[in-house]
Amino acid sequence: MTQPVPIRRAPDHWPRLPDLLRIALELAAAGVPVLPLRKGKVPFGNCTACADNACGGRPNMKTPGPCRCPGVCHGWAAATTDPAVVASPAWAAAWRQTMAVAYHPGGAGLTVVDLDDADAVAWARTALPATRTVPTTRGEHWIYRGAMTSRNGVRPGVDIKSIMAYARYLGPGTGTLADLPDAVRALAVKEPPPVRPVAVAVPAGAGQCPHRTPTYLERGIAMAEQRITAARTAIHATVYRTFLAVLSRHGRCGCLTDTHVARLFTAAQAKGETLRHCSDAWTNARTRLGL
Fold first, then answer.
1. Closest among 33, 274, 36, 271 to 162, alpha carbons compared
2. Euclidean distance between CA atoms 212 and 249, whole angstroms
């Protein structure tokens, strides 16, 4: 499955019940796991038999689909591609209260970058590769081909919805569906939290450069650039660890210049990091080393 099937109404218009069910059946037939959303755009609560996961729920809630009871249960995990379930009498009561159709992006091999306001949309247009976009009430959904870990609040106004999450279906959108880029995967990597400075013993002769030759420092910076450039996953974490390594080796003698730092930042930004993320990672690394 590469993209959701078209919707025949404007994204900001709530269709009537028959239309919602039709849309859900079309999506399910196309391989997109669907579920109904009630008022407030949230999933239906568990049925009485499954309240507080008394039924045991689905194993680790890692795969979508209804539990053994016939109702719409377990939030995003209720999403299914089985048309017999979608149109079943057991789901009929839920459809009568449904305000929107949602889908499980990860189950369809997709990732939705949910941009909640104009500022977030403006950021995405400069930081992320173009892909299929769908207008929302306040912003846009950017949809990529490929699944990943979901995470909310990766930056102001930006959530990632893929595995173990749901997104409202608001139409087919426009543009060509692009493969999931490293720049989006990196957003879900948690930045190491800032730590309080620790006491660092200052070696005798502080202020004198301990490097044997200028080539020693140059080689260290080049190796750091290469480590960042070669990273294929966990870009956020790789950038932080590389900055930490450079500062632990070269950060106390005063040899690092703005030019060296700019080279590291440039390598990180080429992998999709923003200037703010680079600055935060550098500051956190300095703080951890007590610099």
1. 33
2. 13
Helices vs. strands in the chain: H and E counts, helices first = 9, 10
Cα 66 to chain centroid distance, Å, stands at 25
Q: Is 167 helix (H, G, I), strand (E, B) or coil?
A: strand
Residue keyed to tokens 């590389």? 242
Torsion sign (Cα): 59, 60, 62, 65: positive
Cα-based distances in Å from 23 to 3, 42, 191, 286: 14, 18, 39, 53
- pTM passes above 0.90: no
Token pair in block for residue 244: 């930490």
Cα atoms in the Cβ-side hemisphere of radius 13 Å centred on 162: 21
Distance (Å, whole) CA 76 – CA 165: 6
Other Cβ atoms within 10 Å of 109 Cβ, number? 17
Please tell me the total number of residues recorded for the chain in this structure: 291
Q: What is the DSSP string of 184-200?
A: HHHHTSPPPPP------
Query: What's the rounded Cα separation, in Å, for the pair 65 and 58?
Result: 9
Name residue 71's amino acid: G
The residues, ordered by sequence, that sit 6+ positions from 118 with a Cβ below 8 Å of its Cβ are: 139
Per-residue pLDDT of the chain (291 residues; tens, 9 = 90+): 445 444 333 334 434 546 888 899 999 999 999 999 988 888 888 777 777 666 766 544 555 666 667 778 888 888 999 998 898 888 888 888 888 999 999 999 999 999 999 999 999 999 999 999 999 999 999 999 999 989 988 889 999 999 989 999 999 899 999 999 988 988 887 655 554 444 344 344 444 555 656 677 788 888 888 888 888 777 888 888 888 888 887 777 777 788 888 888 888 888 877 887 788 888 888 888 777
